[in-house]
Amino acid sequence: MIYSLLLKSIGPFVVNRTSISPGGNPVDEMPVVRPVTCRPQPASTNPTAKTSRPIDRSILTSRALSGLTTIGIASVSAWLLALSLPKTGIAALAPFGACGLFWAWSRLSWKRAFWLGWFAGGVCTAFYFSWIAHTVGAFLGSFGFVVVVGPALIEGFWYGIAGLLAALAYRRLGPAVAPLAAAAAFTLGEWLRSIGEMAAPFGQLGYTQVETPLAPLGAFVGSYGITFAICVVGAYLAAAITLRSAGAVRALALSWIVVAIAAALAWSAWPARHAAAPTMRVAAIQADIPQTIKWSAPAQALAIDRYTSMTRQVQSYHPQLVVWPESVIPTLLNQHGDLALRFARLAHAMDTTLVVGTNDLYANVPYNDLYVYEPSGALEGIYQKRQLVPFAEHLPAAWLASIPYTDLVANYGEG
Which residues have C-beta within 8 Å of that of residue 107, sequence separation ≥ 6? Predict the structure, then answer.
């Protein structure tokens, strides 16, 4: 033992044979001979030496590739979900986008599923929040895209919550029920990001199916119910891809059948199916005034003249309703009686209901309004917008006003 430890610790050395003492006991009457060179033995010959397993590079490489694959599929899924929404509106992509997220979440811990969900949600929401870069972001020039990051991170957070809950469902529930729970988790996340101060009810999956056979479901279960139906199909598809078993395939087929039956029943009882065909002529006016000049004094006069003249141009079509976009008349209309009277006379001259998007001020609080004028010219009512877009139409917290460029946010009051 002593011999092997010496060889291990001090490297090659030269001794006489008579100085070697096995086990610490001298050897009697060992003949003196020429010196011998002793060299260290391999570590495996030392029973007391600690051994370590060499790094398996193939395992590390496999894990890295698996992680990159998961991130890649989540990214593609986020884009598929975004492409299913307006403006592209490819509705058929929605269940496949959801499928990719569920596939990824089923393979991860709840912590990693949260971060991956946040990432994928940020990518998806940045796509349909890109319009902010053309409104508020127009004032920042080439850095306009920056204003999209904040809302995307906020909305993406709820995708992370959905991923967390879905991952827990996959860990704690059986393969027959877990996809159903995961679909419910996604729907819950969509609902949570659509309520409260930070709410922006854009990009709901239910919106993607407005022109598909699933649309009648909205009359009975709303947009969230349609989202749940899409996610059920996507989650069971992900399970069939992952498990590759006959049971998973049967569950997928059953999910399709149940959703199809539900849609058929909703269609048969759909009130709109029995409604009279639409006969009202509607004219939507869009003057396309750049955001960079919209709030300037010259642009106000331009907007009034352009929207008035464009409205008169459609008079020959005899529209019963003429609609202008929100905030297109950038002034406080309740403080400009002469301008309000001008719009009332326009509605009367056109013999139409005229909806004017503008602003007003009450108790020193600005509001985003729609003024509705009857064909007689009387003011029928004023609608003050209730669901304001965070960071575009209001600041969710007062302390955010200290951040540079937040003075560009309109900060309307909630109607």
Answer: 70, 242
